């Protein structure tokens, strides 16, 4: 039986480290590095039954994909019970989830001293800011995580500093606490090897399509225990009616819990445009400035030129706001730029972006245009076949060959070849972008 084993759990001040071993072929999904997390407050008094939750949250989906177990010396009883529901939800979404068990000889319930606080995973984008507005009466602690979109590499230090400053600038005038978590959760797992095995089954990457709902909430367990956070909110990306394989959904996040804390997938009943409506109402009544950060290309403000920036700016206009007041340079002339970017193939949508533009189109049908340029753009959007703008192409042949080989070649060989292939692939992509 393939299995992961958590062999050691060590907390030192604000740092957590766990060592893991594997049997039955699961070792190829581990990088060889210990699992590490740094919090911004001491976790020495957090029981081991809770300290083990972050590493289990990363390991379990990988083990389940191979029909394997995860072994730990101790675990929180509530968390252990919640895993079965999370596993079943992932299995309903992904056919490759084969099942498996968490095996821990000691299952404990160690209630924290208090549970009267709340927390919110926060980036400053539309979704997490809308969740703040929904729960602002609770004054939630804003929790930001480094390790997924911002890597733990020194090259990303500036990005992390920028994000921290932005979150703090949002929190300070609203008298909110912040919490910052840094982890190597994706470096601890061999993410390229996971992609080699499962990319053909998922629309995105492993963590986005499978792991991040359980992974990010579980990462917060020691923080929540030490801080008295009884409710932890995860802002929804999608909404009812969008059936996509995505690792964070109500039937995943809503089942995760541990001693003193329950997790909530928040705002799933609202479309993205309805979340922007919520922000518009808040912007009118709030004495504080509201700047959003959604850009795919930069973190220190919005570039105002990528697909996501334009999509957000148009959504803000439809909600009755001036995008320039909330972090986006936008004028009537940009409507032509957006249309031409689609028609010339500069942007190719994923399935989720297709749903978001459909949401904009639905609202535009109910909205009186404010200018000739807006009227022309909305008429075009109403007539265009959004499905034709969705990228349905397969990965390049070189990607498919490498991944197929990785499923059978020795792990050491693959780890030597992958960086060379990845570097060459990056160079080819940049050359292609230069030609365009």
UniProtKB/TrEMBL annotation:
Record-given protein name: Uncharacterized protein
């Amino acid at each position: 039986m393939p299995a992961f084993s958590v062999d050691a759990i060590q907390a030192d001040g604000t740092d957590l480290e766990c060592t893991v071993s594997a049997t039955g072929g699961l070792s190829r999904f581990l990088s060889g590095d210990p699992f590490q997390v740094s919090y911004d407050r001491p976790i020495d008094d957090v029981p081991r039954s809770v300290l083990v939750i972050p590493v289990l949250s990363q390991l379990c989906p990988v083990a389940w994909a191979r029909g394997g177990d995860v072994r730990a010396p101790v675990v929180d009883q509530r968390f252990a019970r919640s895993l079965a529901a999370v596993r079943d939800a992932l299995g309903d979404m992904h056919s490759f989830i084969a099942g498996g068990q968490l095996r821990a000889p000691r299952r404990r319930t160690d209630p924290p001293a208090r549970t009267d606080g709340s927390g919110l995973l926060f980036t400053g984008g539309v979704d997490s800011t809308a969740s703040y507005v929904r729960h602002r009466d609770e004054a939630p602690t804003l929790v930001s995580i480094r390790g997924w979109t911002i890597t733990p590499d020194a090259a990303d230090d500036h990005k992390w500093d920028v994000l921290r400053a932005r979150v703090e600038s949002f929190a300070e005038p609203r008298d909110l606490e912040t919490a910052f978590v840094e982890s190597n959760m994706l470096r601890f797992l061999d993410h390229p090897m996971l992609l080699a095995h499962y990319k053909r089954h998922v629309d995105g990457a492993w963590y986005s399509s499978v792991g991040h709902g359980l992974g990010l909430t579980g990462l917060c367990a020691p923080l929540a225990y030490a801080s008295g956070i009884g409710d932890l909110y995860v802002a929804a990306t999608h909404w009812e009616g969008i059936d996509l394989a995505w690792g964070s959904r109500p039937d995943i996040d809503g089942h995760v819990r541990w001693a003193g804390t329950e997790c909530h997938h928040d705002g799933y009943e609202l479309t993205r445009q309805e979340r922007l409506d919520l922000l518009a109402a808040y912007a009118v009544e709030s004495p504080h400035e509201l700047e959003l950060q959604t850009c795919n290309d930069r973190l220190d403000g919005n570039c105002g030129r990528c697909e996501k920036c334009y999509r957000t700016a148009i959504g803000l206009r439809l909600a009755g706001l001036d995008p320039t007041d909330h972090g986006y340079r936008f004028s009537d002339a940009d409507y032509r730029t957006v249309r031409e970017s689609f028609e010339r193939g500069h942007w190719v949508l994923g399935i989720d972006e297709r749903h978001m533009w459909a949401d904009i189109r639905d609202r535009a049908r109910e909205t009186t245009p404010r200018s000739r340029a807006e009227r022309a753009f909305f008429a075009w959007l109403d007539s265009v076949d959004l499905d034709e703008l969705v990228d349905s192409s397969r990965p390049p042949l070189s990607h498919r060959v490498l991944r197929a080989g990785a499923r059978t070649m020795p792990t050491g060989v693959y780890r030597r070849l992958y960086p060379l292939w990845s570097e060459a692939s990056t160079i080819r992509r940049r050359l292609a972008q230069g030609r365009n």
